[in-house]
Amino acid sequence: MNDFVDDFPDEAILDVLGDTVTYSGEGWTETFKAIVEFDVEQVGDEGYTNDSRTQIELFKEYLLVKPKRGHEITHKNITYTVDSVVSDDGAYVTLRMKK
């Protein structure tokens, strides 16, 4: 019996669902597919929404540098700056971005 992961590898999923982005940081620049989400609500300390941002989820295998604040990602001719790393599960990293 095939596993879902075997039938739909990360590269195939990103090829269909992903948008083309260009990542730049520490003298390294590369273009690849990523999941871009707009107006993601951020929950504050009190449990209410106090901000909404763009988040970009990247397949870590594509990165030659560790994502960090100040790196840039260009999507559809708009350049975003990495504000923070939201999550990193070892396969994907989710970044909170700002214009």
How would you characterize this protein structure?
It is a single chain. The protein has helices spanning 4-7, 10-17; strands spanning 19-25, 28-43, 49-59, 72-75, 78-88, 92-98. The protein has 99 residues and is mainly beta. The chain has one domain (4-98): Thrombin, subunit H, CATH 2.40.10. 12% of the residues lie in helices and 57% in strands.
Low-confidence stretches: none
Total tally of structural domains: 1
Order of helices and strands: HHEEEEEE
| Rg for CA atoms | 14 Å
The helix count comes to: 2
Alpha-carbon distance between the termini?
45 Å
Question: Might you state the CATH topology name?
Answer: Thrombin, subunit H
Name of the CATH class: Mainly Beta
Overall geometric form: globular
Determine the mean pLDDT.
87
Instruction: Find the structural class using helix and strand composition.
Output: mainly beta
Count of strand segments? 6
Assembly level: single chain
User: Mind telling me which CATH architecture this is?
Assistant: Beta Barrel
Question: Strand arrangement, largest sheet?
Answer: 1-2-3-6-5-4
Strand content: over 45%
The major β-sheet equals: 6 strands, antiparallel, barrel
Which short descriptors sum up this protein?
Thrombin, subunit H; mainly beta; 99 residues; 6 strands
